[in-house]
Please model this.
Amino acid sequence: MSTQNTLKPSERMKIPRQVAAEQQPDARNRNFLEVSYGFDEERALTEAARCIECKNPVCIEGCPVSIDIPAFIQLIYQKDYVGAANKVREMNYLPAICGRVCPQETQCEVVCLLGKKHEPVAIGKLERFVADYEMKSNLFRTPEIQAKRGQKVAIVGSGPAGLTCAAELARLGYEATIFEALHETGGVLRYGIPEFRLPKGILDIEVERVRQLGVTIYRNFVIGRTATIDELFGEWGFEAIFLGTGAGTPNFMGIPGENMIGVYSANEFLTRVNLMKAYRFPEYDTPVKIGKQIAVIGGGNTAMDAVRTARRLGAEHAYLIYRRSRHEMPAREEEIHHAEEEGIEFLLLTNPTRIIGDENKHVKAIECQRMELGEPDESGRRKPVVIKGSEFIIELQTIIMAIGQKPNPIIQATTPGLGVSKRGTVVTDEKQQTSRPAIYAGGDLARGGATVILAMRDGKQASVAIHEYLQSKRETKQDKLFEEVTTNQTA
Model:
């Protein structure tokens, strides 16, 4: 067989887009095993053959971290799966994670030229295939690391932004140290994304590969309490710092009854289930009592994760309450589709007005009102408008609020001179530089709630900026030393 794809573009277009095998809905909505099995080798090769090798591969531009997508796909076609994984890892050090949770359908795949008249190439599934193949075959090799530079960089937070920044700096020869507030690494990858979408075993392997680059990781270390940013510069001797602490403080609606027993934020609910392994109760003594009727408020990926998790924990009626229509939902289409298959009951164009409790202040119901869509608002989506007299009540035992998060203010409050927006996010420029020299920030801390891949892009951009800054600092130091030596010799 030739190593080149000899099919004409017209022939490639006739190949149907491959679909990964999945657990059946009536089985998976009762377990936390991964929903998608990914591509097998046959499906991967068939899907790779669909790439028409455009002269202007706009898919690269659509990727936030600029992976050479056509190159890694052609390596798959040539059956060089490890080479394909390494090609991805040149720009993205966490391919097994991004292949599972990255919204490719709105990034690289949405601009795929094949998708203009046919289905786009399944880039995300191919990325996952090569990463999983490398893992299962035990063929990963730590990439080459540049000579040690003797300069120390601190990374605060071990989520996707922090892991990426640390990996990139370590590969450049810097002494990178991650400080994580919780007792496990991974940030939102571990406590926010359910096991059935991102198995913790996959995350553990990816974190260990970052550690193998020489990255040191401190856990249970709260920057702003255990040590401040200024102490990291002073007592610890770090020359630059990247802040990637995410957005872990939940938003609430401000409606009556939100302080009732049985009202969770999605952040707390998913953290209990994921980080504290409540889904394995009683093996892990962290029960989450949700009752038989629950509702999640929101329409994003976090809302989908929460309501699908609640269904798996035994909810007989798991409602998703969203004030706009299905079309306006910000969640990934795949997650919406999976939720529908798993029996999630969507209450669209519906908005909660109050939470009703019993005499012991336990949740027993929620009052909602019907909505209709009006003119577009500042987000570009049609604004929901109340239909008068449309109130109705649903009996519930648990309510989970998934309407966004904002950053924890601890670092902002303990770091003088750090610019902060009205939303509580840390202000940065296009290079992720904050208002203070040598301090950079990215991910949800700088953006508010966003995607894993955008957080990774921020971490990558920050690593480039930190490298430039430390190189400039070193050169300035060498120039001053040269001047001193020259002056002494002249004297």
Remarks:
- The longest strand covers residues 363-376.
- The two ends are 75 Å apart (CA to CA).
